[in-house]
Amino acid sequence: MDRVPGTVGPVVRVERLTKEFRVLRHRSGLWGAVRNLVSREGTVVRAVDGVSFAIESGEFVGYVGPNGAGKSTTIKMLAGILVPTSGLVEVGGLIPHRKRTLNARQIGVVFGQRTQLWWDLPPLDGFRLLGRLYRVERATLERRLEEFTSLLGLERLLETPVRKLSLGEKMRCELVGALLYDPRILFLDEPTIGLDVVAKQQIRMFLQQINREKSTTVLLTSHDLDDIESLCRRVLVIDRGSILHDGSVDSLKRHFGNLRRLVFQLADPGRAEISLPVGAFVESLREGHLEIGFDADRVTAPEVVRAVMDRFDILDFQLREIEIEDVVRRIYQRDDAG
């Protein structure tokens, strides 16, 4: 039975949530095509496997994991797009797939690879259409449009067709569209994917302000650990459909260390062994490119660079952030070692 909106408890509650998909087997060739028509063989893939967590009102939570971990599937169940195979999911006191319309009015959703705006219309027309769909009063709509477009620097873009906007410009417009009707909960699935540094920073500052001033609850999926570290006070790590970690960003770092990566372009890679300081390790050496991972809590980047310069002639090097796949791998390594 659905709970009444506004009752006491977490604004998002997930218990033993599971989602399975049946993947049909397709045989090749003429005879295979005939067999496909009469035999629907396949396998069951469990995208989300008994996940449980709760999010309180006003929290800003990161939901991270490698590709295929189950992040987007979870978001789609929270949004009411997908129906769970088993388990419980509640958003604002509603079971999303049973109360899709009511749920849609209390949540905003942004998928980094999809758009809710109209491709051939300018954003301003799309925003006003969304305002009518969600029954936002005209004066309220115009006030919010003025506020959001100012915060995100969209004034010169409002009359330009969406198809002519850059990826970063479209993403800023997507955020406006998702927040026009003042949802209490915001689900963001890779909102900064493919964006440059400036566009990412604009979006981060905007989200921080919305969360701080409006107490909007935010669940963010991202492969960018800078997004997670700068925005989220809590992070959930999911892989193979299950939660591996639920805690602060600092506690996550304690799981895998403060990892960084240096990438070197070498003039002559040679074949000799390289002696690295404690806390650093060779990730790969191929075709003149050397990748060194290191724990910044144990060794500094200059120490690693000096060790490499003692062995190789360096043409160029750069410091790169560790990706979430590295985080998950280190968690598994720690668990295996235990």
User: With helices defined by DSSP (H or I, 4 residues minimum), what is the helix count?
Assistant: 11
CATH architecture call of the largest domain: 3-Layer(aba) Sandwich
Largest sheet: 6 strands, mixed
Encode the helix/strand succession as letters: EHEEHEHEHHHEHEHEEHEEEHEH
Q: Specify the CATH homologous superfamily of the largest domain.
A: P-loop containing nucleotide triphosphate hydrolases
CATH topology of the largest domain: Rossmann fold
Protein name: ATP-binding cassette domain-containing protein
GO molecular function: ATP binding; ATP hydrolysis activity
Domain ABC transporter: 12-265
Keywords: ATP-binding, Nucleotide-binding, Transport
Summarize the structure.
The chain has 338 residues and is α/β, with parallel strands linked by helices. It has helices at 29-38, 71-78, 100-106, 123-133, 138-152, 167-179, 197-214, 225-231, 249-256, 301-309, 324-337; strands spanning 12-24, 42-55, 60-64, 86-91, 107-111, 185-189, 217-221, 234-239, 242-247, 259-266, 280-286, 289-295, 314-321.
